[in-house]
């Protein structure tokens, strides 16, 4: 089990949560239904995870709503091996950092759905592309240090993962769907 720590002073908090200061945050689901169902869920417990893909570690911040106030109750350090989605996290750390591995991990027919950011009334592009075209549609996947915000979702499907990348202040969203096929993870769908 991971190490448990507590922040000693409020001034430590700013540094501790600096990984959330970027342009986006990510959330990981293990089913499309869970992804669609969790978006409006109200909970009295939220786990915010800082996932370091480079050193394969996770820091989990457990927040509880107590007397209508959110309180940081626990901080736990762990490795990918202790995670319920360890296999996916190991795969994704290579997918995010190695362009050759990424290209080899694209489904032969990748489903895409691209909205037109210039015109809200345009339908955009929907269809399939091959792995060679991938870099034209998505130039940057979340990498380095990412977040996972757990609003109550649990991980029961070890062969299907949905990684949602949400813009912090711009409303943009990207959805990466991964499936484990014949023992190998593949990116099977991309939507923005």
List descriptors.
globular; 192 residues; alpha+beta; six-stranded mixed sheet; five-stranded antiparallel sheet
Summarize the structure.
The protein has 192 residues and is α+β, with helices and mostly antiparallel strands. The chain has helices at 10-16, 32-38, 86-97, 99-104, 134-137, and strands at 3-5, 24-29, 45-52, 57-66, 69-79, 106-114, 125-129, 145-150, 160-167, 173-181, 184-191.
What does this structure look like?
The chain is an alpha+beta fold. It is built from five helices and eleven strands. A six-stranded mixed beta sheet has the order 2-9-10-11-6-7. A five-stranded antiparallel beta sheet has the order 1-5-4-3-8, with no helix packed on it. The protein starts with a strand and ends with a strand. The mean pLDDT is 83.
